[in-house]
Amino acid sequence: YYLTGDETAFIPLGDGAAAASALSELADNAERRQVMGVRARAQAEILSWDAIARDYEALYTKLVAT
């Protein structure tokens, strides 16, 4: 849920070669790093405490109104 797509790279647990390969690819691809950063920031904003508080406030308001 926290990481949903292109903002990360999934590496099998304990696979050092895959980790090295993923890091090497990122080191060579500034555009991909930029895209990943923008998407990770957007996801972090969705899951920020301010956003969560607004969601709960809306939920409680709805529950009280019914």
What report would you give on this structure?
The protein has 66 residues and is mainly alpha-helical. The chain contains three helices and no strands.
Mean pLDDT: 90
The assigned structural class equals: mainly alpha
β-sheet strand percentage: under 5%
The coarse overall form would be: elongated
**What order do the SSEs take from the amino end to the carboxyl end, as H and E?**
HHH
Largest beta-sheet details: none
Helix % is 55-70%
Q: What is the terminal-to-terminal distance?
A: 30 Å
Based on CA atoms alone, the radius of gyration comes out at 18 Å
- DSSP helical segment count: 3
β-strand number: 0
Features:
66 residues, 3 helices, elongated, single chain, mainly alpha
Give a brief rundown of this model.
This protein is mainly α. Helices cover 70% and strands 0% of the residues.
List the topology elements:
Layout: H1 16-27, H2 30-46, H3 49-65
